[in-house]
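forwarding from the other thread:

> can someone predict this with magnesium ion?

sure thing
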Amino acid sequence: MTIITVTPNPAVDKVLRVPQLRPDEATRATVQALYGGGKGNNVARALVRLGAKVVATGFQGGHTGALAMERLAAEGIQTEFVVCREDTRTSLLIYEEASGHTYAIYEPGHAVTPEEIEALRDRVERLLPQAALCLLCGSGQSDAVAALFADIVARARARGVPCLLDSSGAALRAGIEARPFLVKTNLAELSDYVGYPLAELSAQRQALMELHARGVAIAALSRGPRGLLATDGNTLWEGVLTMSRVVNVVGCGDSLLAGMAYALSQGADLPTAVRWGVACGAANTQVVGAGFIERSEVEKLLPAVVLRPVDTGLG
Ligand SMILES: Nc1ncnc2c1ncn2[C@@H]1O[C@H](COP(=O)(O)OP(=O)(O)OP(=O)(O)O)[C@@H](O)[C@H]1O
Ligand SMILES: [Mg+2]
């Protein structure tokens, strides 16, 4: 059985390392990584590296799209993209040695036509019979993608395939209405969805319980260095793993989703999925690029995750 990842808003990610950025001067850079990116593709990479069988779909276009597909396939990901009219965008991640900071520069996503949306719907429909899970990732901006996500969630459920949704804005809203099995948010995404600030744990709990009340079986909230909260409506779990050295935060959320999806695909319970998610998010902080985690590293981190039930008997 395979895991499907759907990436409507892909990118070619280039990671550069520079000594220091200076205005009006040429800067010599070394290329650290060049890969097929975009949220679902990063999740696909992390999943394959954990040992899962993955089919990546979504859109790709132009020479950049061809490059992305070639790189993803070379990583052992089965590629089933819909080739669209516009070029896949390029994202630039610049690591500056002098400051230790990374500058992440994202071009806007490309437009897609109604025909291209229709083609992606058909592609996912065709892939669903062989899928254990379907992951819908990214692109909160377009209404067409929002409708597509909602439709895929409903179709997948009709076929008994659980959907995991990691999105924002309109696509998060529409996707939740279709009641996916799991929703993974970060603080900004969930706060935007519920319409109140999430500084306090009590507000975070309330927001996750709102998702659950809307028919989401597992509601998850990742909080960067403060780890993951997730609930099945009965128990609220917290998983945290503090890393002494962080070299990269790009793709932590994608790696976390991959860890949860991997564990769930193996029949794990929620606390075990939380542990895997946090270990994979933490592993991603140690590597350049999004989702380039090592399974051996994840296995070392798993027992170090501090896991506790924050609340029980919520339902
Ligand atoms: N600085 C950090 N130290 C330790 N773990 C981290 C750190 N940043 C992220 N993580 C781990 O990765 C998980 C996901 O990170 P985060 O909450 O930033 O996701 P996100 O906002 O969805 O990220 P993305 O930019 O990939 O979408 C966290 O829950 C945590 O487990
Ligand atoms: Mg995220």
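DSSP finds ten helices and 15 strands in the chain. thats all i got for now
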